[in-house]
Each structure stands twice: as structure tokens, then as C-alpha cells.
Amino acid sequence: xxxxxxxxxxxxxxxxxxxxxxxxxxxxxxxxxxxxxxxxxxxxxxxxxxxxxxxxxxxxxxxxxxxxxxxxxxxxxxxxxxxxxxxxxxxxxxxxxxxxxxxxxxxxxxxxxxxxxxxxxxxxxxxxxxxxxxxxxxxxxxxxxxxxxxxxxxxxxxxxxxxxxxxxxxxxxxxxxxxxxxxxxxxxxxxxxxxxxxxxxxxxxxxxxxxxxxxxxxxxxxxxxxxxxxxxxxxxxxxxxxxxxxxxxxxxxxxxxxxxxxxxxxxxxxxxxxxxxxxxxxxxxxxxxxxxxxxxxxxxxxxxxxxxxxxxxxxxxxxxxxxxxxxxxxxxxxxxxxxxxxxxxxxxxxxxxxxxxxxxxxxxxxxxxxxxxxxxxxxxxxxxxxxxxxxxxxxxxxxxxxxxxxxxxxxxxxxxxxxxxxxxxxxxxxxxxxxxxxxxxxxxxxxxxxxxxxxxxxxxxxxxxxxxxxxxxxxxxxxxxxxxxxxxxxxxxxxxxxxxxxxxxxxxxxxxxxxxxxxxxxxxxxxxxxxxxxxxxxxxxxxxxxxxxxxxxxxxxxxxxx
Length: 562
Fold this sequence. Notes:
By secondary structure, the chain is mainly beta. A hairpin with a 2-residue loop joins strand 36 and strand 37. The longest helix has 17 residues, at 545-561. It is flat and about 150 Å long.
């Protein structure tokens, strides 16, 4: 280049000036899609896809154009005095053309693949890896810059972006400079599959994982199990980290299995038997004797015996009684009056060695002019006596034993001539007592129930603001506890008979009285409970007046501020 030509170029550069926002006279036009489509955006291989030692990420050259990205061009904003701006918002979405283009660059770039000896480990499915620094939506701001040519005096404008180079306000080449501002990360993903490796059988569903290249291999979820087989491991051996798509196939071997027979009653019926066979073989038969369990007969094995053995199994014998023990209640002159009128007996069965004796209230035997007075093993009452709730013991369980209990009767007339001998059990508020009585006519002694006393409700009321209660004067139990039942609000007059700004209402049960006070807050009238008064019963309820006074004062201050 000649010195003369160089001088001319320098002169042109010296006179070509950018117009400040205040000088801008050329109105901006909306940014064209064709200009945005040409912009170049840089893509980075991020995270575990690290290739240069000491480097956090590797980037492809900024040749991927924005045409493959969904974007939105904003409206022009600003004015001649302060300048004009516009924006482009890039919307990176999984599966878009930009992602596909970046994947192709990463998979074919010679310099990129030469970094590793196993270059094909880095060829694969690259997908977006959005971060807070490089999100899915990124905004580029452009500025309307006006220039004036001193040679022609012509004013022209164009959209520029801020330069990232020191000492320069705007970037010279807007197409390539965008790559310094709009950037995205991509991650290389791999697929890891665990499969059972058995044709025609669904041992377990395939487990498929998608992980980042270079990350730890995800573990199989659970434990691989196959009926009749031991799990040996995976083929190929599971790698520590994932650098390629891989399928791990489970390996199996036929296992030894154990078959046990137990009696389910801690060895009382027979000694346990145990056999070891290969999975898939026939189930070995039980060799013991199933007829030597006293009182019981063999019913079945649990679970049901299988033809072949597939896994360790324990078969437990189940039993049923040879015969139930029976207890028979005889009316001994009385008949059942409530359920089966006319029946003279009632039977009950049990497989146990004992049974609880029934009361006549359930059986309902009745004999005219006689009162029931317990049971006896002999009709004339000379055997063993039983009352309701006693336990009758048989010789043994499942012994086909039979017991007979006969109702004992006392003539009704005795009830009118009883005298107390002694109290056996004192009655309480809730439990019946028992006393021994004697008929003054025939001299027969009998036990008679003493009715429960019931709670003594004569005590004073006690309360809090929500409810009232009493204590039983006899046993101190809390009784009659209920919420207050209020009457209507009524005005309160002073000692001169004049109305006050207060109202009162009282609980109609205990007499507890609640007061209210009318407050004026911000021009509104609000009625709030202010105090609670007690009748002369000794109960104590704190007053609410101090707290309401504070609220009223706060309301007055708020009113003054307005």
C-alpha cells in the first residue's frame, strides 16, 4: 500500500465519526430476522465432558448460526435524546436445529476428537445443559448507532452490540461477536441398560438410565433374583464410569435349595425334616408320622406342596382338633324365656382346655317364683359351685370332654325377707358392690348385688372461658364438662340506671358472665369481649380489659395519623 493511499484512508477514518444519542437524527428500523439468522452462537461441552487439562469446558468454533434457534425480536425502545435499543431473546429448546448442529460439530470436529485416544467415546447424543449462567432463554441487547460521513454528509444508522474488547465501545462484526455474549452448554448423555438375559422369561423389567458422559455408572435398583438360580454378576463387568452406551446382562447358575418340614407346634407332633436338592427337581416327600399329636389330626401343609422345588421352602403342618370339649347348661326346672322359649338346656363348644362360665343374663333360664342363684355340677347343689366369669377346666384340650352345669334357684319370697349379713365388696360411683344376705324366713344365705352409687353432682361449678365442669363429691372425677351455653347479650346500666357502652351475657348453666365493650376504630364500631365476671363460686378468670385498652389506644393513634 502506498503512503498516499494510506494517508487518504487515515483521513477518512479521522473524519468518519459516530453520532452521540443526542445527535441521532436517523430513526431506527426494527431488527430483521435475516440479520438475526446470520448471528453465530458458541456452544460449549460442559460438566464431565472436560477435555483440556485444567479447563472447565471445551467450545466449538462460533460457526453455528442462530437460524436454528427459536427467537423473539423485541420492539424498538428509547428516543432521539437517549438513544434507541432493541432486544433478541433466544429460546433454546431440546430437540431444536441448533442442538442438532452443535451435536454434529462436537461429534466430527477433528481437533476435538484428537484430545482422547478413545475419540469415539465422545461421539454421541449431545443435549442442552442449561445453567443459571447460561439459561434456556438468553437476551441480547442491540443499540442503534448513527454515523455521519464528512465526505458526503450522509447520515446512516445500524444496530450494534457492546464490544467485549477493552477500549472499544461497539463490536466491529456483529455477526461473529454475538458468540461472546450468547452461549449455551451441552452435555453428552449415555444410555445404561440392565437386562435379565433370559429369552422367553420376564425375570425383571429392563432398567434403563440416562447419564452424563464420564459420570459414575448408576447401580441396578434392587437385587437381581431368579427363581431357582443364583445371580453371578453382570456381563460385561460394570464399569466405574460411563463413556459409551452399554447394556449389562445378568448371569445366572442353578442353585441348591432346601426343603424343610416342621410341625408348627415346637416339635410336639414330630421332629423337623430337612432335604437339599437342585432347583427344578421333584419335591422330596415327608418321611415322618403325622398321627402322634395328642388331641389333633393332620389337616394340610402350608404352603401347598409343589411338584418341583424352585427355591428354599418350609412346609408347616396345620392341624384340626379331634373333637371339641362341651359345656352344657341345664335349666334344672327352668326354661329359656328370651331366645328359645321352652328349651331346658344350652350347649357351648371349645377346643381349649378351659372355658369361661356364662351368666344367666345371656342364657335367660327362668323358673316361676324362683330367682337364679348360680351354677352347680350337681342338680341338688351338692357339687362344685360356679358363678358368671369363673373358668371351668376340662381334663385337656380337644379331649371330647363334657361338662354339666345345673342352674340353682332361690324362692322369690326370700327376696322380700332378706337381711344384710356383711358387705363383701363396697359399691363405687361406677361399679356395683356385693353383699351377703340371709332370708329371715328360711334362713338361706345368698349374695346380692349393691347398685353403683352414681356420681354426686352437688358440687359447685368450675370453669374457664370456654367450658364449665364439676367434680364428683364422692370420687373427685371430672363430670358435667361442657361448653358454656350463653343467653342473649343485654345492655349494662350503671348504678344510676344509665346505659353504658358495655353488654353482658351469662351461661345459663353455671352463671359465668362475659362482658363486651364497644370500640371505635377508624370510624367503625366493633364489639369485643372485654371482661368476664364470676358468680360467688371461687373460680378465677383473668380480665381482658388491659389488653383491650392497648388495642383501643393503637386504634386512636392510627386514626390521628390518617
